[in-house]
Amino acid sequence: MIEPIPLPDPSVPDPPDFSGWTCPMPLRDHPNVVMGHGGGGQMSGELIEHLFVPAFANPVLAGLTDSAVFELGGARLAFSTDSFVVRPLFFPGGSIGDLAVNGTVNDLAMSGAQAAYLSCGFILEEGVELSVVGRIAKDLGTAAERAGVIVATGDTKVVDAGHGDGVFVNTAGVGLVREGVDIRPQRAAPGDVVIVSGMIGVHGIAIMSVREGISFGTEVVSDCAPLNGLVAAMLDVTTDLHVLRDPTRGGVATSLNEIAKAAGTGIDLVERQLPIPETVANACSFLGLDPLYVANEGKLLAVVAPGDADAVLAAMRAHPLGQDAAIIGECVEDHPGLVVTRTAFGATRVVDTPIGEQLPRIC
């Protein structure tokens, strides 16, 4: 007797389609640009170091921080630019419009600057719905108002159908640096305390869940937010913050590796103190990812002197965007230039900079 073929159960979701995923670790001697060059990892660093820095070499650029700091007309300014190519354009907790504002505002904040003015450039693909562009523009304007910045100038270009991805956005921003502030990665020193402002890995998982149609039992909402108010609260406690960094592409691991290498210090993390929400931990376990490498868009890392750590942590926890702030490690004399995590089992593991990126196109 021939057994009937069972019909699919409509209550069981289709498995995710992994066929379109991009390998996050292409060969670094590739003669052409590959996705890994934009991932914020080792390939991005090599592209910048060996191609762009020699072409543009100057003392202002040499710091290679999130924003350049310089004096102009007697004022100390920070200046930054960023391009946003996220897919999908809209996601739980925000859109490319929110990202465009918050990403640049946060880059300026990581130098201790309060953003004042932004420029905005739209690159539109022929055929994209004007309603989509209008929604993004409205989100961008609302995000600017929320962050307390003015979109002062802009530009629009249209490319042929098939030569874009709907909408790309570029923003640049300028802001004033508070007097007495000297925030840069080279200031990290043994004994300094490492603080993160809240739960990590949320943005990257939110983007992946929508893009790949994967459900993790509950909706993961992006942490996209402007951090200038949080930084201002921290600077009210002490202007002697040593390092600030928003761990976007490449996540917490990449940002801490950049700090360790720039300062020539080691960094020890304590795994059990890392604030990782259960939804992110479960998603990373399912996808084979490490939360330390997943992007964030509304979190910051702070490296502060041990004598200031408690006061800074208290100020962060008193702010809505820092309620889950936690001390996650310290700078040490051992293993200079390396980041090491102490696991719950008492072992240690090196947390290296990724070659490419686990999750492409998240900002």
Task: Give an account of the 3D structure.
With 363 residues, the protein is of the alpha+beta class. The protein has 2 domains: 113 residues, 2-Layer Sandwich (60s Ribosomal Protein L30, Chain: A), CATH 3.30.1330; 166 residues, PurM-like C-terminal domain (Phosphoribosyl-aminoimidazole Synthetase, Chain A, domain 2). A 7-stranded mixed β-sheet has the order 9-11-8-12-10-13-14. The chain has 8 helices and 14 strands. Helices cover 27% and strands 23% of the residues.
Rg, please?
A: 21 Å
Estimated helix fraction: 25-40%
Number of domains: 2
- The run of helices and strands is HEEEEHEHEEEHHEHEHEHEEE
Q: Largest sheet, if any? A: 7 strands, mixed
Low-pLDDT residue intervals, each spanning 5 or more residues: 1-5, 18-27
SS field, number of helical segments: 8
The first-to-last residue Cα distance is 56 Å
The global form is globular
Which structural category fits the helices and strands?
alpha+beta
| Proportion of residues in extended strands | 15-25%
The CATH architecture of the largest domain: Alpha-Beta Complex
The CATH class of the largest domain is Alpha Beta
- Kindly report the CATH topology of the largest domain: Phosphoribosyl-aminoimidazole Synthetase, Chain A, domain 2
The count of strands amounts to 14
pLDDT average, as an integer? Answer: 89
Domain PurM-like N-terminal: 66-177
Protein name: Hydrogenase maturation carbamoyl dehydratase HypE
Family: Belongs to the HypE family.
Organism: Kribbella amoyensis
